[in-house]
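pls design
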């Protein structure tokens, strides 16, 4: 039985990836940082019905010694580094923490792999945010990077460390440059989930307005369930590499909103207001990925379209809020 170690196991992608790996027969170990709110930490894993099937291990991305101990204890065949301070807007408020966790944290995992588990295959959760102020209208593996936030700068460091550990030490280290991917398990602070939660609340009469920031920003949005498969496929290749993972379609926040409100039989014009509190010091205006390499080499393609994603998220939020209204 293969052993996989997943950092960020309590996040959106960690939950879907764990489910995917368990279905493939892996022994899954999750790195979990100590928190006083440990009862809510496993919420996503419980939602997918996999919480009891994962072995949780205490550790932290900013504590190299904990990562070395984990590598020694688990002896993983595959390491997926998904842990990060992943909310771009917070990265301006906590730039150094973001640098430590999202950037240096990845270097710590690479060091722990190099020193304690050099045969393990390594996956780094790189991001389309690294393209930032885009240098080409459609972004691929060869598009120059231009990070626009402390988060993106930290991810770029982690990305290049992955490339360097591959080239310097011969590690089987791959980097997935994933474009935005969403799901009912998306954190509530991210715009898609904020919208679908808001739509559900308005539909159920729990609120009347939804305040958002820049409605013109465009993103290439896919489903997390599809994207974790691409992570796994990268580690099954004979040679490691870097891959853009995207749908190849871009849509604005306004477009996403329109679809979500329409799915609930509502009109966004009646409910959406803009609030400067949700604007950023610097914006990434437009992202659109070319997933050609992933399709050709991995045989991967997005399976869920934007309409299907929006419908699933709105329906899940309506069901969740209706259940909690019945309980109260
Ligand atoms: P989430 O924010 O949902 O999850 C982040 C995870 O990192 C959580 O499990 C969190 O644990 C953990 N974490 C945070 N700090 C530490 C730390 N110091 N030590 C150990 N674990 C820590 O992110 P997603 O699941 O959405 O994304 C997964 C990864 O992919 C992230 O690295 C993200 O930056 C990257 N990415 C995401 C994209 C997306 O669209 N979702 C696109 C491209 C890249 P806790 O529960 O304790 O907070
Ligand atoms: P992003 O995701 O920054 O792309 O990073 P987010 O959903 O936070 O923002 C997307 C776009 O929507 C605009 N926006 C708002 N965003 C939020 N959060 N709240 C609002 O009210 C709002 N109104 C408009 C933003 O300005 C932005 O343009 C995500 C994260 O998962 C990263 O970790 C990952 O690397 C990238 O996707 C790819």
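designed seq:
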């Amino acid at each position: 039985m293969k052993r996989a170690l997943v950092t960020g196991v309590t996040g959106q992608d960690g939950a879907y990836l764990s489910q995917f790996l368990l279905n493939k027969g892996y022994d899954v170990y999750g790195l979990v940082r100590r928190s006083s709110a440990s009862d809510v930490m496993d919420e996503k894993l419980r939602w997918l019905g996999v919480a009891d099937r994962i072995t949780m291990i205490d550790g932290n991305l900013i504590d190299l010694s904990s990562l070395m101990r984990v590598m020694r204890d688990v002896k993983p065949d595959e390491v997926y580094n998904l842990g990060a301070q992943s909310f771009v807007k917070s990265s301006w408020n906590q730039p150094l923490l973001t640098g430590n966790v999202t950037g240096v944290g990845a270097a710590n995992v690479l060091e722990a792999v190099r020193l304690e588990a050099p045969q393990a295959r390594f996956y780094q959760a790189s991001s389309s945010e690294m393209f930032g102020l885009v240098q080409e209208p459609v972004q691929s593996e060869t598009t120059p990077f231009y990070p626009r936030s402390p988060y993106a700068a930290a991810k770029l460091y982690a990305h290049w460390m992955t490339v360097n550990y591959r080239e310097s030490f011969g590690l089987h280290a791959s980097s997935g440059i994933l474009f935005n991917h969403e799901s009912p398990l998306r954190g509530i602070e991210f715009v898609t989930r904020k919208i679908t939660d808001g739509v559900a609340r308005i539909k159920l009469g729990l609120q009347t307005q939804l305040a958002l920031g820049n409605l013109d920003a465009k993103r290439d949005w896919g489903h997390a369930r599809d994207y974790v498969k691409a992570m796994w496929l990268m580690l099954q290749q004979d040679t490691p590499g870097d891959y853009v993972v995207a749908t190849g379609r871009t849509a604005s926040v306004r477009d996403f909103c329109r679809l979500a409100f329409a799915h609930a039989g509502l009109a966004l014009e009646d409910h959406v207001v803009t609030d400067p509190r949700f604007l950023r010091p610097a914006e990434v205006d437009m992202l659109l990925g070319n997933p050609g390499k992933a399709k050709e080499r991995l045989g991967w393609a997005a399976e869920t379209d934007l309409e299907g994603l929006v419908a699933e998220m709105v329906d899940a939020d309506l069901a969740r809020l209706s259940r909690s209204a019945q309980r109260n």
